[in-house]
């Protein structure tokens, strides 16, 4: 990763992006299967075509995925959590924009996502088919 990318993502996100990268899983640990707690499928997830480009640009896939949790919850789990909340768009947008601690089991870094971009990402997440997480962990 170059310095500009590290500055843009922030150190925590850059470290997370590296740790879940195929290069780390294969090169640092001797190849697939050497990290039993992190199967290769978890580091090779991809986005649906209709997802906002900002999800890739801001490194969201370092911690989140479609269909399963990584470090953070699956996007569909977030949709499930907020599906009946009238202020869902504002809450999810704010969390994307500002980061913070979460009862999902981690902390989302503040990646300086602009307000309009955070809103676009939140709208996309909330339009996904909600899927109940394997273990519901409350509010963040």
TrEMBL record:
Keyword Iron attributed: yes
Residues annotated as domain Cytochrome c: 46-129
Keywords: Electron transport, Heme, Iron, Metal-binding, Signal, Transport
Name of the protein in question: Cytochrome c-552
Record's keyword annotation contains Methyltransferase: no
GO MF, one example: heme binding
Organism: Acidithiobacillus ferridurans
Signal peptide (from-to): 1-25
UniProt-annotated binding residues for heme c: 60, 64, 108
Record PTM text: Binds 1 heme c group covalently per subunit.
């Amino acid at each position: 990763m170059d310095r500009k990318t590290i500055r843009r993502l922030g150190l925590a996100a850059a470290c997370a992006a590296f740790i879940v990268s195929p290069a780390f899983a294969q090169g640092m640990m001797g190849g697939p299967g050497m990290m039993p707690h992190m199967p290769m499928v978890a580091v090779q997830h991809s986005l649906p075509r209709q997802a906002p480009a900002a999800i890739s640009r801001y490194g969201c896939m370092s911690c989140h995925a479609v269909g399963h949790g990584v470090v953070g919850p699956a996007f569909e789990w977030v949709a499930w959590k907020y599906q009946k909340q009238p202020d869902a768009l504002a809450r999810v947008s704010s969390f994307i924009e500002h980061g913070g601690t979460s009862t999902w089991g981690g902390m989302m870094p503040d990646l300086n996502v602009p307000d309009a971009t955070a809103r676009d990402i939140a709208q996309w997440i909330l339009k996904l088919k909600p899927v109940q997480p394997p273990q519901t962990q409350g509010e963040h």
